[in-house]
Structure formats: C-alpha cells, structure tokens
Design a protein that fits this description.
The relative contact order is 0.20. A six-stranded mixed β-sheet has the order 1-10-9-4-5-6. It contains five helices and ten strands; from the N terminus they run αββββαβαβαββββα. It has a single domain, classed as 3-Layer(aba) Sandwich (Glutaredoxin), CATH 3.40.30. With 198 residues, the protein is an alpha+beta fold.
Length: 198
C-alpha cells in the first residue's frame, strides 16, 4: 500500500513538473523599451503597453500571402475563444517587420478588411532601425528574398521569416513560443488559463 501511494505521488509530481516546464520563464521582455506606433498612429511603448497583462504576440508583414494571414487568423480564433470563455486581461499585439511598407494606415486597413476586434489588439510598427532591433531582441529571423516590380508599378516581394506566436505573462516574461501558422488553439488557451490561475 505504501509503495502504491509512493508511486501515485511520483506520478503527480512528474505531471505537475511537466506542466511547469512547458511554461518555464524563457526571457525577460521588460528589459526592452521601444517606441512604436499603433494602427491609429498613436505612440506606444513596448512592452509597457502589455504591462500587467498576459499577451499574445504575433509577427507579420501585410504583403505576406501565406504564413502571416494564417498567424493573424489564429490570433483571431484565440481572441474569440477567450471572449466565449470570459477570460479577460489578455492583450493581443501584431508587430510588423516591414516598416517601410506597413505604415499605421496600412495596418489599420489590414485589420479592418479582416474585421478584427481591436478592443484589445494593437498592430504596431516603427522605424526600420527600431523594428530591426526589436526583432533581434525577440529572436525573430527576417530575410528579405525575391521581389518583382510589374509594368503598372506594383511591387511584389517576400520575406523568409520565423513563423511565431509568443505568450508573455503578466510580469513581461516570455513563457512559450508557438508555430504561428499551425498553433493549437486549445493548447494556447490552456496555457493562458494556467498563467491566469484558472
């Protein structure tokens, strides 16, 4: 009997330690301080804008035709699930790594075309220097690749980039990286609940 109880204790310990390991403290985002503009051209400070809240962070460029639309839609699904479950105190942030094209008005249009709920969702951009520095700090790899200019002057171009959504806790600590375009909605919802103490 004692052996059985001991084995049960070991099992529970391994389960809870495994849960904790999944949300280990990876990096302190509060050491950063960036001046950015949101989709309404309002200046904000990142990560101060998410201080005291859980944050879901995505990285995009609006001319993207594959990964970024999927990442954005997944963030929308996460937001909708949280609303349905009445889980609050969660902020959403999409940061463009193409600041030369993605001005605030472009980000605003990008969000409105997709009918996104901007109540707790900011789309951010800044100068190229600032964005390049921010991307380096958050571990994003961005490489500009093939580009084409058509006869009508329209330009088509691509970035090879890290496919990522990040989960930040209430203290500004990075807790988990996800594959942005293929993220499990149930997984990140559960992780948010864990950070919320639910």
């Amino acid at each position: 009997m004692k052996r059985f109880i001991y084995l049960i204790a070991i099992l529970f310990a391994s389960i809870f330690s495994g849960c904790k390991a999944d949300l280990e403290e990876l990096e302190d985002f509060t050491k950063n301080n960036y001046s950015l503009l949101n989709q309404d051209s309002v200046q904000v400070r990142f990560p101060k804008i998410i201080k005291g809240k859980i944050a879901v962070i995505g990285y995009i460029f609006t001319n993207c035709v594959d990964v970024c639309p999927l990442t954005t839609n997944n963030m929308r699904l996460i937001q909708e699930n949280l609303i349905k479950q009445e889980i609050k105190n969660v902020e959403f942030v999409s940061i463009s790594f193409d600041p030369e094209e993605d001005k605030p008005s472009v980000l605003n249009r990008f969000a409105k075309v997709r009918d996104l709920n901007l109540e707790n969702w900011n789309f951010l951009t800044s100068s190229k220097e600032t964005i390049d520095s921010l991307m380096k700090d958050v571990g994003m790899v961005i490489i500009k690749s093939d580009s084409t200019v058509y006869e009508n002057g329209m330009k088509k171009y691509y970035y090879v980039h890290t496919d990522r959504i990040q989960l930040i806790d209430q203290n500004g600590i990075l807790r988990k990286n996800y594959n942005g375009s293929k993220i499990s909605i149930d997984e990140i919802i559960q992780d948010i609940k864990t950070l919320s103490g639910l």
